Amino acid sequence: MSDADRRRAEAAAGNPAPIDALGRARIVLRASGLVLGLLITVPLHYLWRLLRIGSPWPKVFLGWAARFAGARVERVGVPLKRDVFYISNHLSWIDILAIAGQSGTAFVAKEEIRAAPVVGWLSVLNRTVFVKRENRMGVAEQINQLREALAENWSVTVFPEGTTTDGKSLLPFKTSMLRVLEPPPPGVLVQPVLLDYGAMGEEVGWIGVESGVDNAKRLLSRRGSFRMRVHFLDPFDPHDFPGRKAIAAESRRRIEEALVKTLGHPLRPFAYDVGPVRYEAPAPSRDGEDLPPQSPGPIAPPS
Predict the structure, then answer these.
(1) In terms of residue numbers, what domain contains 158?
(2) Which residues lie within the region annotated Disordered (predicted)?
(3) Which is more confidently placed, 113 or 258?
């Protein structure tokens, strides 16, 4: 196991590696770039709002922020601009910067992101609906917020895996947030999105018990940049797949198909401490239906 893989495994286990002087300098440099972007774009954003015209500045800044976080974002495909419900896989808080920077979408994201430095505030600025996974009583309120967003012709993105993974796996899609599509609002299409970090997926992934602060510090302190691709797949009409479970299944099928094509091999089961060299093919299909991957169980982190 390489040093980078060892650090990732330790971070996932809640044991972040110390950041050296160069790493701290990179954090300061990148944070300074973010502050500069804020100083330029936030006043312009509120000026646009004062003039009651659509503000492009959250999208501009979030794209800027993704670049300063180290991501060289490439867009593949064409994102719909409005009346669209994006459904995406999920690896990192950088996902929000990348997708919003390419499309200007609002989000549904896990509550923990609200506490992440800078990104939490940016998410609020970009109209994110935060979800507490353990708060089942709050689902109705969250659905109402989504309906209001779609009624105002927003684009909205959900991450139905319910957590972040490693770019080599795809968890079953939870469907509670897709109730907003029962029935689909008039004119709204669903567009699946694949986030592809390539070989960097496991290092970038916010997995295990690593805190949001530790993950942000780890990524902002790393040397160099990394490529990620945002694949906007072909949209479909949710009326063709009645019910949220059918919509989730079709979206997952399309994302999995694109991810397998990108990786060049079938997906592996997900466990936050599975080492990069470990690989297992999915369980064999039964009656032509792929079975969900089964976790092989935790592997002890390296000593």
Answers:
(1) 3-263
(2) 278-303
(3) 258
Distance CA 113, CA 119 (A): 7
Beta strands in the chain (DSSP E): 71-76, 84-88, 106-110, 129-131, 155-158, 189-196, 226-232
The amino acid present at 58, given as its one-letter code, is P
Q: In this predicted structure, which of 21-35, 94-108, 135-149, 250-264 has the lowest mean pLDDT? A: 135-149
Both tokens of 250, joined, read 């079709």
Listed as own residue / partner, the contacts of 239-246 with beta carbons closer than 8 Å and 24 or more positions apart are 239/183, 239/184, 243/182, 244/175, 244/178, 244/179, 244/181, 244/182, 245/175
Phi, psi of 91 (to 5 degrees): -125, -35
Is 40 part of a structural domain of the chain? yes
Query: What residues contact residue 139 under an 8 Å CB cut-off, 6+ apart?
Result: 176, 177, 179
Total number of domains constituting the chain: 1
DSSP for 131-180, please give it: E-TT-GGGHHHHHHHHHHHHHTT-EEEE-TTSS---SS--PPPP-GGGGG
At 22 the pLDDT is 95
The torsion defined by the Cα of 268, 270, 274 and 279, in degrees rounded to 10, comes to -10
SS3 241: coil
In a domain? residue 43: yes
Mean pLDDT on 272-295: 41
22 burial level (CB within 10 Å; 0-12, 13-18, 19+)? exposed
With beta carbons less than 8 A apart as the criterion, state whether 70 and 39 touch.
no
Q: What would the pLDDT profile of 199-246 be if each residue is shown by its tens digit?
A: 888 888 888 888 888 888 999 999 999 999 999 999 999 999 999 999
User: For residue 21, is it within any domain?
Assistant: yes
Specify the DSSP class assigned to residue 282: P
